[in-house]
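It is worth pausing here to work through a concrete case rather than discussing structure prediction in the abstract. The textbook approach is simple: state the sequence, then state the predicted structure, then interpret. We follow exactly that order.
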Amino acid sequence: MLPVVMILGGVIIEITVASAFVAYSVSQIGLGERLSSEALSAARSGAMDAIARVLQDKDFYDTDGYSLTVGNRTASIVITKDYPSVGQTRIVSTGTALIRQKKIQVDLAVDSTTGETNIISFEEINL
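Step two, the predicted structure:
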């Protein structure tokens, strides 16, 4: 009788440990996806902030970069004038949420005389 109780107890403990591991794994996957989404949102916000700065001043650039706090996440933004070609401005915004990072790249065509600005591309790029 005692061996049967010990075997059943061992099986129950093994099932409990396996269930706890599966629950932990599922929650970590959900956390990673949420952090990725928050990092992407911060990167988009940084890109939109940079676009607004270029719209206000057609000659604006910041190759050293600046940071923008979005909630409790951050975006690091670099604005390069006349890149990749003359008359274009490239914005690279990297959003960070704990250990996750996402990057948005925006290319703008900026008329040096009128200041008219058009978005050429607005896309997520791989890190």
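Step three, interpretation. The domain at 2-125 is CATH 3.30.1300 (Pantoate--beta-alanine Ligase; Chain: A,domain 2). The longest strand covers residues 100-110.
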